[in-house]
Amino acid sequence: MKKLLPILLCLSAMALGQANDSDSTAPALTIYNQNFFVAREHLPLDLKPGINHVEYAGVASHLEPDSVILRDSSGRALQILEQNYRNDPISQELLLSLYEGKTIEFMVQPGQTVKGRIVRSGYVPSTSYYPQGEIQQNYSQPIIEVDGMLRFGLPGQPLFPALAGDSILKPTLNWLLEASEAGKFDVEISYVSGGMSWQADYNLVVSDELDAAASAKSEAKLDLLDMIGWITMQNQSGKTYEDASIKLMAGDVNKIESNVVRDRMYMMAKNQVALAAPAAPVQEKSFDEFHLYTLQRPTTLHDKETKQVEFVSATGIRAQRIYVYDGADVAQYGYSSGQLIQDPGYGTTSNSKIRVMEEFKNSEANHLGMALPKGKLRFYRRDTDGHLEFVGENMIDHTPKDETLRIYTGNSFDVVGERKRTAFHIETSQRWMDESFEIHVPNHKKEAVNVRVVEHLYRCNNWKLTEQSHDWRKKDAQTIEFPITIAPNGEQVVTYTVHYTW
Fold first, then answer.
1. Angstrom distance (rounded) from CA 461 to CA 500
2. Residue 282, pLDDT score
3. Residue 454, Cβ neighbours under 10 Å: how many?
4. DSSP letter at 383?
5. Residue 125, Cα to own-chain centre: how many angstroms?
6. How far is the C-alpha of 329 from the C-alpha of 349, rounded, in Å?
7. Domain residue spans in the chain?
8. What is the DSSP letter of 486?
9. 92, 207 contact by CB (below 8 A)
10. Which residue has the higher pLDDT, 356 or 14?
């Protein structure tokens, strides 16, 4: 019977050899930024009429067996009678479990051995449903009996007899296939697996806008940005994919993930970054409700490897540096509208921090104009000695083209704020309230700055300003904004009175 078994461990090596000659037989990967991927591989089979037993060793360690699709590329009939997935490759711990209750030899040092009976192996299957802490505490320590005494731990290096006939060295899929006719089949196997992910990272170098006239027309300071975007792929799947065609799917794809798989993924070790050189160009396109980024040349993604490729590079991006003072240090939740009216001290606590933001539009006119996957943006600015210094970072969500990004990078050192209430009067029986505030914003810089002073009118939905020192604009139903310009080493004081009715 064994003479008739096509062993796909050998055939898969043949398939890899053909992948170098033809792109059509090379593996293809679609990696999602949610820690899973779809793999497609071509396997040559030589089948006889009737039932064939086929094995494919070396699939991903976190494969979802119920996602496997096996089909002949030419469309010939290929009936799958049975599919089995084994993910228990031979290891010292597994062999110990197979010999539980039996006595084997342990090598204490070269030339010296002792015999011990394996009471408990300490092997815990990777698919166990026990909590990880309980497993480590109660089950993972082996117990060996040596000379009538129990030892918690191995007395030496275990020496095992030969492997059993059904032992495997790699995660393995095997099938019972029924073919209507003999012949060679070019079979495509597709499956979903955990253990692979990608993320986007953006490095931006900030320089001052040289066009003074343009800066003078703007209420915010203008900067020029140079951006380099990297895609970082991490392979923890347990398998190396040679010369693979790789696509990266960006978007929030709904994926149901079992607790066992998720816990196993959390336990994977982190690996050092291995940079890919040179960087590969990436092509982006819209796909369904998501976006696909395709690497324009095949690449090998080794198991336990982190690979990076450059996917976006832009210079001369025009951005506005925005200073925002949101001085009311309040909890916006946990209060009903009645409590807001009755508590005279609500919203009177002040914070002094002024947030600094970079705002730019993701458009072709601004030297961008491609869908940007979610990731981390790091900002650098060149010092007078020519060295780049890190000045802040933050995350962005998936951002379509022509959308505006506003990224918080930190708080200003030289521009601060102080907010205090100067008057409060309430007439509960007549259902109205007056409240007045004074906001000081000093600028200790040697250059003028434009600050947006944000005020939240939380007390009630019905309000109007009866007095104000500066022009203001309404941002939403209960938020207003005072745009002010502060001279070098100067100060602006914003005052207003709001009248509430209910």
1. 8
2. 56
3. 16
4. -
5. 28
6. 5
7. 2-88+168-194, 92-159
8. E
9. no
10. 356
Q: What token pair was written down for 88?
A: 């228990």
Q: Is residue 276 pLDDT above 60, yes or no?
A: no
How far apart CA 219 and CA 359 sit, in angstroms, is 13
Provide the 3-class DSSP secondary structure of residue 62: coil
Computed from CA positions of residues 253, 254, 258, 263, in that sequence, does the dihedral angle turn out positive or negative?
positive
- pLDDT at residue 258 is higher than 70: no
**3-class DSSP assignment, residue 299:** strand
94: phi > 0 → left, psi -120 to 50 → alpha, else beta; which? alpha
**How are beta strands 290-295 and 282-287 bridged, if at all?**
antiparallel
For residue 219, the SS3 value is coil
Is residue 289 within 8 A of residue 371, CB to CB? The reply is no
Q: Residue 300 to residues 250, 273, 275, 308: CA-CA distances in angstroms?
A: 21, 15, 13, 12
CA 187 to CA 44: how far, in whole Å?
6
Specify whether the CB–CB gap between 318 and 222 falls below 8 A.
yes
Q: Can you give 258-295 as a three-state secondary structure string? A: CHHHHHHHHCCCCCCCCCCCCCCCEEEEEECCEEEEEE
Contact 160, 94 (CB under 8 A): no
Phi, psi of 276 (to 5 degrees): -90, 130
The CA distance from 501 to 462, in Å, is 6
Confidence bin at 191 (pLDDT 50/70/90): very high
Contact 490, 443 (CB under 8 A): yes
The residues near 68 (Cβ < 8 Å, ≥ 6 apart) are 83, 85, 173, 189, 190, 191
Determine the average pLDDT of the residues in 364-389: 90
Residues across the chain: 502
What is the Cα–Cα distance from 483 to 490, expressed in whole angstroms?
Answer: 16
- Angstrom CA distances, 25 to 44, 123, 378, stand at 9, 39, 39
Check pLDDT > 60 for residue 413: yes
Confidence (pLDDT) at 15:
33
What does the pLDDT read at residue 252? 64
What are the structure tokens assigned to 214, written together? Answer: 């343009």
- 164 phi and psi, to 5 degrees? -70, 160
CATH of the structural domain 2-88+168-194, one choice from 2.60.40, 1.10.20, 2.70.50, 2.40.30? 2.60.40
